[in-house]
Amino acid sequence: MFGEGNERKELERKMQQEGRLPPGQAATLKWPVLHYGGVPRFDPASWDFKVWGLVAQPLRLTWEEFGALPRFHITRDFHCVTRWSRFDNQWTGVAFRELLRRVQAKPEAAHVLIHAEQGFTANVPLADLDRDDVLLATHHDGEALTPDHGYPLRLIVPHLYAWKSVKWVRGLEFLDRDVPGFWERNGYHMYGDPFREQRFDTDP
Length: 204
Ligand SMILES: Nc1nc2c(c(=O)[nH]1)N[C@H]1C(S)=C(S)[C@@H](COP(=O)(O)O)O[C@H]1N2
Ligand SMILES: [Mo]
Description:
This protein has one domain (2-196): Sulfite Oxidase, Chain A, domain 2. It is α+β, with helices and mostly antiparallel strands. It is 17% helix and 30% strand. The strands form two sheets. Strands 1, 4, 5, 8, 9 and 10 form a six-stranded mixed beta sheet that branches. It starts with a helix and ends in a 19-residue tail after the last helix. Residues 31-36, 80, 116, 120, 149-150, 162-163, 165-168 line the site of ligand MTE.
């Protein structure tokens, strides 16, 4: 699952030395696919992306409109709670702050519930999305996302465990309180900092 022995071990050692390997994680050279349920079908004619809740300007974008937003690239590591870490992923997409600028969070907004196809959700504090390395990604390492990695659009929150990096994302709901998402209701941590090993709701 993790890829070839020596090359992988060497990378892992280097990442450890650089302080980039969170506790309890192993490096992978491959890119595992992990999600609950099936891979949804994408229909560009009916797809939309919505922002609602505690925002001054609720937003609804079609796939075409979303494609007209300015894009940027960023390279970040990716840590799954099932103990694999994939380093130096290049993501391309639309910065969260680009959307935030358009919708204008109300002063009471403190949390965001991310909504995806098939009812999947994840909760992230607004402050953890309002960072210059959080984006809604369409591409990985220069290639369009494949359907099993979240095509057409996924959230990327590099500093939290990857279950917060919601695939097949369709909307953002701004809230004044923290509401548990899918994995958070199923025993996972409300926040999920990989460097503090916040895997389960029983972790501090
Ligand atoms: N919609 C949706 N997004 C999801 C998940 C899911 O079950 N559904 N699983 C998460 C988990 S646990 C991980 S580790 C990453 C995995 O992303 P990958 O399959 O592209 O490696 O997606 C996250 N995003
Ligand atoms: Mo995960």
